[in-house]
Write a structure and sequence with these properties.
Helix content is about 45%, strand content about 5%. The protein is mainly alpha-helical. It has one domain (about 10-60): Multidrug-efflux Transporter Regulator, Chain: A, Domain 2 (Orthogonal Bundle), CATH 1.10.1660. It has a two-stranded antiparallel ribbon. A hairpin with a 6-residue loop joins strand 1 (about 40) and strand 2.
Length: about 60
């Protein structure tokens, strides 16, 4: 039996709000390679982020 650990994924809008930036800025940072490329949902191709990635982004932009 395959066990999959439940991981909560956050949308680009949710992550942008948590970082205090716009969604457009979040995507721009990804395109400029300031942030690593986001995982994409295989069904709808939307960006998905984990809480660990959000914490990493906070460190990159100097937020706690």
């Amino acid at each position: 039996m395959l066990r999959v650990s439940p991981t909560k994924y956050y949308s680009a809008t949710e992550v942008a709000q948590a970082l205090g930036i716009s969604k457009q800025t979040l995507i721009r940072y990804e395109k400029k390679k300031i942030f690593p490329k986001a995982k994409r949902n295989p069904i709808n191709e939307r960006r998905e982020y984990t809480v660990e990635e959000v914490e990493q982004f906070k460190k990159i932009i100097g937020r706690k």
